[in-house]
Amino acid sequence: MAYRAAKPHLTAKGWQVVVVNYAEAHRQNLIFALAGVSAVISVVLGPAQIALIDAAARAGVRRFAPAEFEGQAALRPATDALDRGKRSALERLRYHQTHSGMRYTSFVCGILYERFSPGGMMASRIGVRSGIGGEGDYLMHISQRRARIPYAINGQPATICMTSAEDVGKFVAAAIALQNWPLELRMRGDRMNVSRLVQIAETVRNTYFEKNQYNSQSMQSELALAQASQAIQQQLRVISMMATANGRFDFANANLNTMVDVTPKRFQTWLQEVWANH
């Protein structure tokens, strides 16, 4: 595993950790670190990921999985505030697939369960730089018993797919052994509409939540207010809610679930476990 800094807790578990620098001046060292590696699973974004892609191609890496996860790339708008360099990474991967033969796939897992854990994703050191990784930044603030329910264009509560971070790791590890990677490998632990999501949280916490419902017009109005006040974090919250209503985090065909031997944890079971002592 390659990191910008040493990870003693991983080394103690017997994992091989290589400290790398993604800056241009250190590019040759990065290429050397990737020598003999057959597959790279990226967890970095932006310029660092582009550097990793280029170095992997030059080092002869056969397969690369960018830091995509969450929603389907095809459903992202051309101008996407949630992008964080992902579109550029896919463009670079398409280039290298054509010119060097390095194949790639995007792992799609829907929404991470950890968004609904105590402290949100950031409590697990996930999404720290996303701007919306805290508890309550996406749909529900369980501690405060509040929820936002976006409605799709069909007038029904939006549907999402979800997976725990632990199960994502299991799926990805199992996928390494697959002989061929399609352009997208989709996995999920659960699939439900957001009204059901809130009902489960209410059941687990044995209380009722304050619920606000949003249609396309009300989300656009809320976004306009956030833009007028230059409230960046609130803009990202609303944009992620709009993406949910537009179906970005939903998919009927979880192809990876049928290709590997992984039994993911259902959302209610996971939620009961992480909130048991809170």
The main pleated sheet reads as: 3 strands, parallel
| Mean of all residue-level pLDDT scores | 89
Q: Indicate the multimeric state.
A: single chain
Strand content: 5-15%
Specify the overall morphology: globular
User: Helix tally?
Assistant: 10
List the helices and strands in order: EHEHEHEHEEEEEEHEEHEHHHH
Terminal Cα separation, in Å?
34 Å
What is the SS-derived class? alpha/beta
The stretches of 5 or more residues where confidence is low (pLDDT under 50) are none
**Strand numbers in spatial order across the main sheet:** 3-4-5
Beta strands, count:
13
Helix content: 25-40%
Q: Mind telling me the C-alpha Rg?
A: 19 Å
Structural overview:
- By secondary structure, the protein is of the alpha/beta class.
- Helices cover 36% and strands 15% of the residues.
- 35% of the residues are buried.
- The mean pLDDT is 89.
Per-chain topology:
Layout (H helix, E strand, L loop, with lengths): L1 E2 L4 H4 L6 E2 L7 H7 L5 E3 L5 H13 L3 E3 L20 H14 L3 E2 L1 E3 L2 E2 L27 E2 L4 E5 L8 E5 L1 H11 L8 E3 L3 E4 H12 L4 E5 L1 H13 L3 H14 L9 H5 L7 H8 L4
Question: Which tags fit this structure?
Answer:
alpha/beta, three-stranded parallel β-sheet
Please summarize what this structure is.
36% of the residues lie in helices and 15% in strands. The chain contains ten helices and 13 strands.
